[in-house]
Amino acid sequence: MSALPLEPVSGLEKVDEIDLRDYWDGPAAFVAGPANVALQMLGAPGVAYGVMESKVESGRVDLHPFKRARTTLTYLAVSALGTDEDRALYREAVNGAHRHIRSTEDSPVKYNAFDRDLQLWVAACLYYGFADTYERLHGPMEEELAEAIYQQLAIFGTTLQMPRDLWPATRADFKDFFQSRLANADIDDATKAYCRMLIRFEMTPRWIRPATLPLTFMNTGYTPWQLRERLDLPWSPRHQAVFNTVNRATGMVGRRVPRALRNAPFNVLLWDVRRRARTGRPLV
User: Fold this and answer.
1) The ER-bound oxygenase mpaB/mpaB'/Rubber oxygenase catalytic domain covers which part of the protein (predicted)?
2) What is the CA 250 to chain-centroid distance, rounded?
C-alpha cells in the first residue's frame, strides 16, 4: 500500500467513536472495485472458481455486471457503515445466495462460500482496497488511527461467518499475511482470463466500453504490481505518473466536498437496502 507524500491524517479521539464516513471515498468503488474483485480471485483459487462457476446466475458479474456491482457495493456499505440490524438482514440475504456456491465433482478446486478462510481472504482484500485507495488519495493516516480503523474493518469478514480471531492481530501481521498470499498466488489460465475481463470492463455492453477506458486505466493501476505483471497488463513509469496525478487531484476534490457527496454511492446504497427491507423487496 503506497502512501502519497502528504502529512499523516489525524483525528482519533476514542477508538469506539470512529465514524468511518469521515474516511470513506465513494469514487474508489469505480476506480478500484473490479481490481479488488480480481485480487480476491487471484489470491484464492476457491474464490476464483466460486465466482466463475456460480450457479446464482442473477449474481454473476459476467452476465449481470450492474446488478453484481450493486450487491457487492451494498455489502461494503452495510458492513462498514450500517447498523447491527442492517448487517443481520444483509447477512441472511447473502447467506441465501451463498448456499448455492459450492464446488462439484467437476470443479478444478474445492470451495464453499461459507469457508471461513476464503471469507478471511475476501475481507483482507476489501480492507486492503480501503487502505490502499485512502493512502493514494489522501496520504498516510497516523499510526494509531490507522490501527483502530484496521481493527474496526474486521467487520468485512465478521458480518458473515469469519470468526474475529481469524483476523490478523495487527496491521503488521496483516501485511505479512497479505504479502505472503500475493507471493504464493496460484493463478491458472481461466482465472487470469476472467480477471483481465473484469479489469478491462469487458463484461459491460459493447456500446459502453469506450467510456470505461479511464476506469480500466485506474483499475490497472490499483492492481498490485506483482499481479499486474502476471496478468500481462501494460504499465510504465509514465502510466504510474499519470495514475498518481489523478489520485492526488481526486483526493484534493474529495477533501473539499460535503461528506455525503464524498461517501456516494455507498450512502445511497445503504438507504436503498433499508428501503428494500421495509418494502419486502429482495436485498441481493
Assistant:
1) 22-247
2) 19
- The pLDDT tens digits of the residues spanning 211-256 come to 999 999 999 999 999 999 999 999 999 999 999 999 999 999 999 9
Bridge partner list, 141: 9
Task: Find out whether 71 and 60 touch, Cβ atoms under 8 Å.
Answer: no
pLDDT of residue 8: 44
Of the ranges 9-18, 197-206, 222-231, 267-276, which one carries the lowest mean pLDDT score?
9-18
Take residue 116 and report the three cell numbers written for it: 471461513
For residue 2, pLDDT over 70 is answered with no
**What rounded mean pLDDT belongs to the chain?**
91
Identify the helix (H) or strand (E) that includes residue 110.
none
CA distance 145 to 62: 38
What residue type is assigned to position 167 of the chain?
A: W
Taken as a whole, the chain contains a residue count of: 284
At 56, which helix (H) or strand (E)? none
Whole-number Cα distances in Å, 160 to 51, 59, 256? 17, 17, 35
Q: 116, 163 in Cβ contact below 8 A?
A: yes
Q: Directed axis angle between helix 116-138 and helix 28-42, to 10°? A: 140
Per-residue pLDDT, 11? 41
Prior bond of 258 cis (ω within 30°): no
